[in-house]
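Dear colleagues,

As part of the handover before I leave the project, I'm documenting each prediction I ran so the next person doesn't have to rerun anything. This entry is a single chain, and its sequence is reproduced below.
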Amino acid sequence: MTVRLTRRLVTTTAFAVLAVGTVAAFVAFGVVSNSRSIQSFGSVKAVNVGVYWDSGCTNVTSTVNWGMLSPGDSKNVTLYVRNDGNVAVKLSLTVQNWNPSNASNYMGLAWNREGQILGSGSVVAATLTLSVSSGISGITNFSFDIVITSVEQ
């Protein structure tokens, strides 16, 4: 009887240790797998200006690949904007066509050339900054259109 009781106690203890170890492993795995990476692409539309990857304005920008981002990240991309017209223009930037549509609740795009006056034929380096909220969830891929507009001055 004592041997049976001892075997039962050893078996029960082994199962308890195994169960606690399994739960601990799942908890640890859950903490590790709680991070998210975000892949993005953005297309660039330019109205009355040219947008390029280089200051010599030879490599036209049509898309921006933001790469992998994590919650709380921000990433800069430098583009070159050229006034292709024959009069000075004022620059502005907007974002359209967020996909998914709620991505705009967790992400924002800004640049350092809002309201910049750009003379005819002039080129300016523009830094675009995409910021991702640390509270983002449920979004693993997204896209949006970057619209750079110029208004005659």
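The radius of gyration is 27 Å. Residues 8-37 have pLDDT under 50 and may be disordered.

All the best with the project,
I.
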